[in-house]
Amino acid sequence: PLHPATSEWTLDYPPFFAWFEYILSHVAKYFDQEMLNVHNLNYSSSRTLLFQRFSVIFMDVLFVYAVRECCKCIDGKKVGKELTEKPKFILSVLLLWNFGLLIVDHIHFQYNGFLFGLMLLSIARLFQKRHMEGAFLFAVLLHFKHIYLYVAPAYGVYLLRSYCFTANKPDGSIRWKSFSFVRVISLGLVVFLVSALSLGPFLALNQLPQVFSRLFPFKRGLCHAYWAPNFWALYNALDKVLSVIGLKLKFLDPNNIPKASMTSGLVQQFQHTVLPSVTPLATLICTLIAILPSIFCLWFKPQGPRGFLRCLTLCALSSFMFGWHVHEKAILLAILPMSLLSVGKAGDASIFLILTTTGHYSLFPLLFTAPELPIKILLMLLFTIYSISSLKTLFRRSFTLVAQAGVQWHDLS
């Protein structure tokens, strides 16, 4: 294992992603052997960039397949005369050409397309009532990247409610006699086997505490380096304002103000100056309180796969707003699933447009060099204009006030 002092960046991905990178390394050595030297920090070469770009594009094949499967789950009642007016075509463009995913994967450089492909594929399987496959894919996804724990409550509750209970009463409430122990055991076995395959070797070597310390480095700052626009960013800003006022009025001693950054991507702690300091436990409690209403509705007022998708989106947004050390790209956890809802109802489309516009704009700091400024502005404008025009065409008869979002289509335009 690498010593923590090897690099300032911790190894904070689950085991499956490590195996994924290990497989990639066997191909990478044919491009540039030096990129595989773990002590060769900040190394860059044209061949390394070439390999990174092509490997991301190649792995996006899974994302394309997942989008195809999701499009099969869309209701085709609103079928336009032209191909470009059909919901499935619009959804495919909203997902495949998503501005946020494009800059995160192909400019900022990550493998999020591959990971989101696993998530969308698991959602598609749940829509297709292939619950065991959906559960398996999501379990695998969690061991590739644990940020998807944000939406795990939606998966767990939906699978228990819709798969383990085989029948409901006419009013939609639970028919307890229909509870299937076999299905519960099957789901548990899937989760257990995937977890055992991922974490078993570390458990055998007594290295599991080290794995979890890297996966959940709570000594990092409350906010990520570029400040995801969530509740804690406002909280930190308010603390900063109050501290400046306190210094001006001489209520505070400059020598007692902490010097550490509250927004570092590196490992360090921060104490607020005026407001109470926030702990990881406090953010967890706030997140759980925020997701409870959607979880409650998913259990007691089930609305099928679309209800699950709404709950998943709300879980992602709640975790984004109140989670600890949230990365800006976590907003894509809500934007991509919301894309599926946007082509179903005009109200969902309105919310989707507001969410994508604000959420994608919050990703701008990831591309911070001057040459990238016109690129990100142009790409976002193209995606936003297409989203508004295509969804407006799809719901051309819904020009009246949309109750769910409280806005009109021409206002969004």
Descriptors for this entry?
mainly alpha, disordered C terminus
Description of the structure:
The chain is mostly helical. It has one domain. The protein is built from 16 helices and no strands. The longest helix is centred in the first third of the chain and has 27 residues, at 46-72. The radius of gyration is 23 Å and the shape is globular. It starts with 14 loop residues before the first helix and ends with a helix. The model is unreliable at 263-268, 399-405 and 408-413 (pLDDT under 50). It is found in: Endoplasmic reticulum membrane. The chain crosses the membrane at residues 50-67, 88-104, 134-160, 180-205, 281-301, 307-324, 331-355. Pathway: Protein modification; protein glycosylation.
Concise structural overview:
This protein has 413 residues and is mainly α. It is built from 16 helices and no strands. The chain has one domain (15-222, 278-394).
